[in-house]
Amino acid sequence: xxxxxxxxxxxxxxxxxxxxxxxxxxxxxxxxxxxxxxxxxxxxxxxxxxxxxxxxxxxxxxxxxxxxxxxxxxxxxxxxxxxxxxxxxxxxxxxxxxxxxxxxxxxxxxxxxxxxxxxxxxxxxxxxxxxxxxxxxxxxxxxxxxxxxxxxxxxxxxxxxxxxxxxxxxxxxxxxxxxxxxxxxxxxxxxxxxxxxxxxxxxxxxxxxxxxxxxx
Length: 216
Known about the structure:
Elements: H1 2-10, E1 24-30, E2 33-44, E3 53-61, E4 68-76, E5 82-91, E6 94-103, E7 106-113, E8 116-123, E9 128-130, H2 140-145, E10 151-157, E11 162-171, E12 179-185, E13 189-193, E14 199-204, E15 209-213
Parallel strand pairs: 9-10
Antiparallel strand pairs: 1-2, 1-15, 2-3, 3-4, 4-5, 5-6, 6-7, 7-8, 10-11, 11-12, 12-13, 13-14, 14-15
């Protein structure tokens, strides 16, 4: 009953993220060729005035006349625990809504598409981060959890059911307040956030993917 209650609470909250004014734009390239763009806003506070943070993002592939459009919402508590996760995926086959919520050591995921609905339960916990192959601003949560000694994390990609293990090691920011993190393991790369914790750059050399802040 507890799992059902959590999912029933999440389901009606379908964000109209695409209609919001998002403050930061990212450009996604692979092997030097632009493949898509992403816009996101990271702010303090959650729904109903609760403390924590809210990340709202919209990505489009390609940026003009997209074949794939993904709207994401990630709410976390002040301790960086998952409060709410939602993906609205628009593609050639219609729209799919993916919802996730944490319940102790469990991660509850529900997928709703036209004419179908499915739920599953996965291992969760404080070292699990929710990611997506098309929404790179979600790596903000990785930067928050990274430590100088290296933090062992598990990444879960609810849309594709991919699960990875990696270490996030935070490097010195030179006193600027910015953060640089090295990723190693099933995910290899580097990421950087600005003084407000917003993703500024993300690079995966193995796949040739580079995500950078668009110039104003």
